[in-house]
Amino acid sequence: MSVISIDQAALPYSMKLCFAGAACHLRTNSFQLATVLKGLSISTDDAVPGGFDMRVVVDEASDEAAGEPHFRGLHHVVIASFGGSNVFVFDILRRTLSASVSAAIARDDRFWREKLIPITLGVLGSAMGLVPVHCACLELQGDGLLIAGVSGAGKSTLSVALSRNGFNYVSDDWTYVSRFGDGIVAHGTSAPVKLLPDAVEHFNNLQGCSLQRSMNGELAYEVDIVETFGAQVERACEPRWLIFLERRQRAGAIFTPLSSAEARRYVSSSVERLPLQLHEAVAMREQTIESVALLPCWRFQYGGTPQFAANELREFVAYRRQEIYVYE
């Protein structure tokens, strides 16, 4: 594998950033890249302990756009390339990202927001105390609702419907969970919401929006949920409940309690295997997964529109909030 050699003195731009709760110390030779990443960062006050270092050299003579992604890994090192001019080396053990990119990539806000930042959190997250969980997250009056389910179950569509029914939006596809004291915190990123083509049948706001080819090859609407739907966004919340979403043909809604063992299996299935050198990260991740699995958990089966499902979940959460705040 190739190794990127970076002269630290050649990286005059330095700043502290935060993505989905992960503190990032950026150094680069590109003012433009620093500006793009600063625009995607959230308050560093929300960062979990630890974090990672990012060192990026921008070749101003290259204007190569992002090519097809290719990944290779050996032990605690992962290399990702997006064409010959854009190479990223992740060292999970040392929590570092070293990269050499073109000027076109440096100014491509969408590339960093939709691809590189989520990839970085997925690769380095567990070493920083962040566990990527394949679920959406919504927040209502300080309480978080995690919505899990297989791809195509409708998590993103339901997330938009909930955001128009009084909930604040945190994330729609991947949520990053960290431990905080005796509890856990769910973090979102600035990634756009991704909606499958049939979502236009439920949301008139998508009229005029164009379908795009996402990184996994799917055609989807990838839109800013604030600009397109007027949603309110929260970057972090404390999860209170975990819902497993399932569609059914018959109209109506059914909530069925699920065991922590079932929740644990789902969360564990969505995380990447870690090398033996990262035994501390493995142990920390298992503690976080256990905390997620111990949340009150239900299977939510429904038939009908996303708006119908959102109303059912709104009533469900209102009742559960009474259990927490009234009956205690």
Question: What Rg do the Cα atoms give?
Answer: 20 Å
- Main pleated sheet: 9 strands, mixed
Helix content: 25-40%
Helix-strand makeup class: alpha+beta
Based on the model shown, name its key terms.
328 residues, 9-stranded mixed β-sheet, 7-stranded mixed β-sheet, 35% strand
Task: Please summarize what this structure is.
The protein is α+β, with helices and mostly antiparallel strands. It is built from 8 helices and 19 strands.
Task: Give your account of this protein's structure.
- The strands form three sheets. Strands 8, 9, 10, 11, 12, 13, 17, 18 and 19 form a nine-stranded mixed beta sheet that branches. Strands 1-2-3-7-6-5-4 form a seven-stranded mixed beta sheet. It has a three-stranded antiparallel beta sheet with strand order 14-16-15.
- It is an alpha+beta fold and 328 residues long.
- Helix 6 (260-269) packs across helix 7.
- The mean pLDDT is 87.
- The chain has eight helices and 19 strands.
- The chain has helices at residues 31-40, 103-106, 109-124, 155-163, 225-229, 260-269, 279-293, 306-325, and strands at residues 13-19, 22-28, 48-59, 69-74, 77-82, 87-91, 96-102, 131-133, 135-140, 143-148, 168-171, 175-180, 183-187, 193-195, 212-213, 219-223, 236-247, 252-257, 297-303.
